[in-house]
């Protein structure tokens, strides 16, 4: 009984420290943003590149298991799901992008739309008046996507990946990808706490928007970069490079694919380093029913639309 109590107290302590760490990190990002955003706009990008080099550094074999176990206890990673032995991860980057055991994330066969990643739902709703809000903060869909016209009925689903989550992301639906738009932006923390302090955060951050269509019309999926998450990799787009010194903040690179990429629901799409956000914006009928809500914790493959919706 004493051991169980100790474990419960330890888990509560880790949870509290994660929350405190998130708040302190958000405040630190905010104050740095206030000081550097005009004087030295590349500060966060340079910091993320430096952190990326540290994350890529090889860890001695003898130190890997204790390091990754300590990290996993603090960030609540489920090591029982991991396919490889901890000693096989040569760096933090490799551990962040860990592959899970087969069958760990079953894809709901009945729902036409499933969660592309593990994480916490920040916002899910039908779009109104060419904008949307996350945590009470408004964003422009046109600015976010970099397009002039938006379909009449669009839904949004925003999912935040914490440092302890599975960092690969998958196709949320059967859809056809026609183009990619890469916005070279800032790399600010996307911790939910920070959204209320930095206006238009998602539109400021580096992001890669994949656009195309699905059963109900327009469909887009956007991995958003963040502090320590300069690296976004996408399987169908090997030419993509993010957070490069040659990329000026505000630069936009659009690519129309010569051949349309048809991807299948649940198919591996890409991966992050450390944690970030996935934003889905998609067209649908007015009676479309979403089965997840703000604040929900979701897993890859979990239904976003009710199974009986067709």
Automatic annotation (TrEMBL):
GO terms for cellular component: mitochondrion. It is an enzyme of class 4 (lyase). NCBIfam families: PS_decarb (TIGR00163). It comes from the Eukaryota. One of its GO terms (molecular function) is phosphatidylserine decarboxylase activity. It holds the Pfam family PS_Dcarbxylase. Catalyzes the formation of phosphatidylethanolamine (PtdEtn) from phosphatidylserine (PtdSer). Plays a central role in phospholipid metabolism and in the interorganelle trafficking of phosphatidylserine. May be involved in lipid droplet biogenesis at the endoplasmic reticulum membrane. GO terms for biological process: phosphatidylethanolamine biosynthetic process. It comes from Lepeophtheirus salmonis (Salmon louse). Its EC number is 4.1.1.65. Its cofactor is pyruvate. Pathway: Phospholipid metabolism; phosphatidylethanolamine biosynthesis; Lipid metabolism. InterPro entries: PS_Dcarbxylase, PSD-B. This is phosphatidylserine decarboxylase. Keywords: Decarboxylase, Lipid biosynthesis, Lipid metabolism, Lyase, Phospholipid biosynthesis, Phospholipid metabolism, Pyruvate.
């Amino acid at each position: 009984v004493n051991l169980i109590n100790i474990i419960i107290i330890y888990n509560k302590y880790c949870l509290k420290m994660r929350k405190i760490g998130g708040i302190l990190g958000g405040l630190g990002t905010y104050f740095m943003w206030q000081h550097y955003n005009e004087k030295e706009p590349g500060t966060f990008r340079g910091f993320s590149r430096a952190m990326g080099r540290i994350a890529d550094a090889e860890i001695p074999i003898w130190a890997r298991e204790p390091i990754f176990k300590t990290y996993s206890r603090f960030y609540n990673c489920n090591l029982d799901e991991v396919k490889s032995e901890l000693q096989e991860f040569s760096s933090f980057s490799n551990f962040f992008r860990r592959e899970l055991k087969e069958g760990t994330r079953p894809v709901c066969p009945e729902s036409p739309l499933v969660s592309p990643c593990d994480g916490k739902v920040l916002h899910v709703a039908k779009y109104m008046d060419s904008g949307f809000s996350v945590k009470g903060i408004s964003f422009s869909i046109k600015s976010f996507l970099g397009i002039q016209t938006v379909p009449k009925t669009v839904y949004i689903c925003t999912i935040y990946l914490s440092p302890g989550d599975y960092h690969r992301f998958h196709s949320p639906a059967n859809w056809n990808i026609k183009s990619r738009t890469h916005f070279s932006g800032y790399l600010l923390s996307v911790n939910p706490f920070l959204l209320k302090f930095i206006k238009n955060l998602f539109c400021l951050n580096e992001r890669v928007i994949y656009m195309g269509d699905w059963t109900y019309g327009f469909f887009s999926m956007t991995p958003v970069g963040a502090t320590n998450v300069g690296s976004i990799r996408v399987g169908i787009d090997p030419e993509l490079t993010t957070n490069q010194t040659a990329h000026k903040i505000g630069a936009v690179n659009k690519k129309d694919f010569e051949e349309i990429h048809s991807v299948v629901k649940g198919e591996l799409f890409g991966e992050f380093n450390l944690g970030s956000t996935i934003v889905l914006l998609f067209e649908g009928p007015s009676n479309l029913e979403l089965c997840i809500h703000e604040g929900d914790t979701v897993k890859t493959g979990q239904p976003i639309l009710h199974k009986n919706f067709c």
